[in-house]
Specification:
With 286 residues, the protein is an alpha/beta fold. 35% of the residues lie in helices and 19% in strands. The protein has two domains: 9-116 and 254-285, Rossmann fold (3-Layer(aba) Sandwich); 131-250, NAD(P)-binding Rossmann-like Domain (Rossmann fold, 3-Layer(aba) Sandwich). The chain has nine helices and twelve strands. Strands 2-1-3-5-6-4 form a six-stranded mixed β-sheet, sandwiched between helices. It has a six-stranded parallel β-sheet with strand order 9-8-7-10-11-12, with helices on both faces. The structure holds NADP nicotinamide-adenine-dinucleotide phosphate (NAP).
Length: 286
């Protein structure tokens, strides 16, 4: 008989009553979400388990049907499915509909509702650092999915939100969409005058790869500004901004708080944010 390996840890605690939550992505192997959510379930003694599901784009519809068929409590949705999932759901929150992307699905008695917790997650990451955006002049670089989520909430609080993006079409679409609900948003066609902003947000993917150029020239920073990056690591932009004397915020807080908000939608319990943060930091350091 072959040797059988008994898996340690919470796998042994799975019962017939365990509720399953997952993440649909392609690729999905680098996700930090299982560590964060499983630590929170364990800490609160909740009989839930969070699993990664590798879902190819052509299988997304079947995967969404499987949420109902397998009675999953819900899922996170990540790249490249955040937009494509919308027409497959029964309902979408007004914010997610505006943003045009869903990162969290809740299954309530077979009715699938989509939410977007990325933008509010970003705002919570700022308030957790006691950083107030009210009445501030903000420059956001980027107009992709994350930028759409973040700008919806930032523009609700800021005095002024100016957006720059390499691709003009996406930039104009985002500014036109936001202008239907806000009066303080405008597009910047050529990146300049960054010293006049109180807060600068990098919402592009520049900084993910070693050879990426910087999204803004850090030597032009005034020094008393807040510089945020949605990327969850300390990027070259943040390192350079710190050297210029700026306060910096990386995207780890956004990752944490989008998870906190998703956790609360699924479980209807207050998420243990500190436990989730510790789990994220532990997983990143491994
Ligand atoms: N912390 C979190 O929880 C969290 C959550 C979501 C996303 N993120 C991060 O946010 C970033 C953006 O994600 P996303 O989902 O918005 O991606 P996306 O929809 O693909 O958008 C990418 C953005 O980056 C810009 N960009 C890409 N390459 C560029 C280049 N070489 N030069 C100038 N601009 C470039 C794009 O500009 P064009 O329109 O001109 O192509 C676009 O504005 C990623 O780094 C992601 O990791 C973090």
């Amino acid at each position: 008989m072959e040797n059988v390996t008994i898996l340690p840890g919470f796998c042994m605690k799975i019962t017939g009553r365990t509720r399953i939550i997952g993440i649909f992505g392609y690729p999905v192997e680098h996700t930090l979400s299982p560590a964060m959510h499983n630590a929170a379930f364990e800490h609160l003694g909740l009989d839930y388990c969070y699993l990664p599901f590798l879902v190819r784009p052509e299988a997304l519809q079947q995967a969404v049907e499987a949420i109902r068929a397998l009675s999953l409590r819900g899922v996170n949705i990540t790249v490249p499915h955040k937009e494509a999932v919308i027409p497959l759901l029964d309902e979408v929150s007004s914010e997610a509909a505006f943003i045009g992307a869903v990162n969290t699905v809740v299954n309530k008695n077979g009715i699938l509702t989509g939410y977007n917790t990325d933008g509010r997650g970003f705002m919570l990451s700022l308030s957790a650092r006691d950083l107030d955006v009210s009445n501030r002049k903000i420059l956001m670089v980027g107009a992709g999915g994350a930028a759409r989520a973040v700008s919806y909430y930032l523009s609700d609080k800021a005095k002024e939100l100016v957006i720059y993006n390499r691709g003009v079409e996406k930039l104009e679409k985002l500014v036109a969409d936001l202008s239907t609900v806000r009066a303080n948003v405008s597009a910047m066609k050529r990146l300049c005058g960054i010293e006049q902003f109180d807060i600068i947000v990098n919402a592009t993917s520049l900084g993910l790869h070693r050879d990426d150029p910087l999204p803004v020239d850090p030597t032009l920073l005034a020094g008393n500004q807040i510089v945020c990056d949605l990327i969850y690591r300390k990027t070259p932009l943040l390192t350079a901004a710190e050297k210029q004397g700026c306060t910096t915020v990386d995207g780890l807080g956004m990752l944490l708080y989008q998870g906190v908000l998703a956790f609360e939608l699924w479980t209807e319990k207050t998420a243990p944010a500190e436990v989730m943060k510790k789990a994220l930091l532990t997983r990143i350091s491994q």
